[in-house]
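Assess the record.
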Amino acid sequence: MEAPGDVVVSDLFEHQKEALGWLVHREESCDLPPFWEEDKDGGFENVLTKQKRNERPPPLKGGIFADDMGLGKTLTLLSLIGRSKARSVGGNKARGAKRRKVEGAEESRTTLVVCPSSVFSSWVTQLEEHTKAGSLKMYIYHGERTKETKELLKHDIVITTYSTLGQEFGQEGSPVNEIEWFRVILDEAHVIKNSAARQTQAVIALNVERRHSQSRATGKSLIQRPLEEENNSTGLSRLQSLLGAISLRRTKETDIGSKSLVSIPPKTVVAYYIELSAEEREYYDQMELEGKNKMQEFGDRDSNLRNYSTMLYFILRLRQLCNDVALCRLDMKSWFPACSLEDVSNNPELLKKLASLAVDGDDFDCPICLSPPTKTIITSCAHIYCQTCIMNIINSSSSRCPICRRSLSKEDIFIAPEVKHLDEDVSGNLSSDKPLSSKVLASLSLLKCSANEDPLSKSVVFSQFRKMLILLEGPLKAADFNILRLDGSMSAKKRSEVIRQFGHVAPDAPTVLLASLKAAGAGVNLTVASTVYLFDPWWNPGVEEQAMDRVHRIGQTKEVKMVRLIVKCSIEERMLELQEKKQRLISGAFGRKKRGKNDK
């Protein structure tokens, strides 16, 4: 389907036209929902649950648009919104759409876009670049904002954040909760992967025509449980059927006929394995052995859960040792509690240690909402949560710690003490007179090779440890690299300026960007670079893909090389094994279902 020419000024790629047609079909089709069939008596039956009904089940108006990052999903969605606007102005009504009254308006055509605040700039930029000026009106519902529904309904797009929805969930007078939205788009929808989180519940409660839902209990019994059982293909088969009906997933490597999906130069992904020096290996092996011994002292599962944060802290420190011993203290006694039951009530040092766990690990998530903690809270039993998440637990009928099940009250929660960021000029203090780590030496060698091949080539080095980015500055500057740093401690304005400077191409321009994914994540375009170094692995392979796709996306003109730096015989190799296991599940879920005679 072509984009509406009176709204969208850019030409869509073929894969975007295909996606636009699919999105319109998902919104306007009267197809039966997945797993429902019409029986011979004219009734309807769900082939999984065996539920029967006489009336036709309503269609699911919505879906999962799961194309690879960097394939232009935002422009495709703007085309979808523009099509609704054009049809509304022309007096046409979308097939199957309801007529409804909203604050005196005959029918709402406003789309609500929910996303992390870091993605706002991407939507605004795409709107400015690809649509006619004034053809689509956007309102940013964040920070200081209107409480008038009429004001929001004057706009074609209202953009807000998941956290804003969570804050207003259940509030009287919240316009986002009162409006019956024409469409809701959940950008970076993995943010609401935890169904118990407040912001997830806020999204589910939105009043909207174009969306779909599924019973959690049914999904758990019919899909999740069989998936978790070994040698049980039923769950995967059902998941493939469901996703095949409601999702669209293409990667940059997907072919349409004999042509590639998009004309982006190829990328290669390689693992560069590093041997630790004799001194580093001695440190690492000693720490790993002492840690394992301590874990065995904890004994049973309940004791391990009571010391859950200590185990996370231990794993974090092992990962940092793979990067550089300067990142963490080598005093093992400071890593572990003095007794088998952690209690932070009268232990400020333990509070600081746990606070540093949330700050140092760029991929640390609150166990309830599965997102980086906001307003970090540490419980007396030494577990880390978002303030909103744990307060919801405490105010519920079962006020127990979700991890160790210890009873909690308001007196058992502590605000995490502030962990001061290192100043911009402390890289020399971090490195002191010690030799460079094996991983730093390896990265320097690889960057020098790239510079020798093409002095103007640009590279991005991702690490989840801000201290590591600072530590790299000294050696890189000493090697005459012109560098920039981009991390989560910077303001949005400062980050935008760094990205602008990195985009400049000239003999004296920066060639290396040291970046954290929090700052260079969703919505950031770094196609000026052609090499990506993942200095340390993430637990989630999707996070690594996101880092890579800042560079390998539409607009890239060079072949892209992705290099994972992995320490041999370390926790990093085990993290790769876990990533591969997750990737196999993802690939299987979006793969084509093999049908058998008795397959439903």
Q: What stands out?
A: The longest strand covers residues 267-274.
